[in-house]
């Protein structure tokens, strides 16, 4: 997708406990009427929707306060079930910064957004995965994933590009949602890699002392 094709107003899905990163794909089960409407409208236009996290300290759960940064995704697969749900596959394209919420007659929320800080997300240049760069992260992440009962195909990850691997690990990791939001907001891959390492250090003591992770 070109920069000029990016919409400045997007429908958003404020889903708690869920983050999508650029260059990663995730399945979604859509069943709420307002989001059924949103997907219907999106399929008729550009197939783009924004994923953004509500803040945990929300006073009004019906209209939650949203984080400032989310990720624009494109619907790459769409199935309607017999009971009226939509099963979609969403591919992360580029992060966005929320500018303001726009008034709309839709049941779902629409944001005016800016992509200025995140144009690098659209760069398709493939970086060779340097395992030496990620060796310590992989080692500590593997310990954390195993401790939490997560199963990851590490060999498959090693075949991906560096940014795909880092983003996939950040998204799938058993970090807190606040920690994942920090990773989403990091400007570039190097900083994100270092942030993962920093976050892992807070877990390392529990991993090796064999204590329960909170």
What's the short version?
This protein is of the alpha+beta class and 214 residues long. It has helices at residues 33-44, 131-148, 154-158, 162-172, 177-185, 189-208; strands spanning 9-14, 25-30, 48-52, 69-80, 86-102, 109-114.
Spatial shape = globular
CATH class of the largest domain: Mainly Beta
CATH topology call of the largest domain: Archaeosine Trna-guanine Transglycosylase, Chain: A, domain 4
- For the record, what is the CATH homologous superfamily label of the largest domain? LON domain-like
Describe the structure.
The protein is α+β, with helices and mostly antiparallel strands. It has 2 domains: 3-122, LON domain-like (Archaeosine Trna-guanine Transglycosylase, Chain: A, domain 4, Roll); 131-208, Methane Monooxygenase Hydroxylase, Chain G, domain 1, CATH 1.20.58. It is 35% helix and 24% strand. The protein has helices at 33-44, 131-148, 154-158, 162-172, 177-185, 189-208; strands at 9-14, 25-30, 48-52, 69-80, 86-102, 109-114. It has a 5-stranded mixed beta barrel with strand order 1-3-4-5-6. A hairpin with a 5-residue loop joins strand 4 and strand 5. Helix 2 (131-148) crosses helix 6 (189-208) and helix 4 (162-172) crosses helix 6. The longest helix is centred in the C-terminal third of the chain and has 20 residues, at 189-208. 26% of the residues are buried. Residues 207-214 have low confidence and may be disordered.
What key phrases describe this protein's structure?
214 residues; alpha+beta; Archaeosine Trna-guanine Transglycosylase, Chain: A, domain 4; Methane Monooxygenase Hydroxylase, Chain G, domain 1; 6 strands; 24% strand
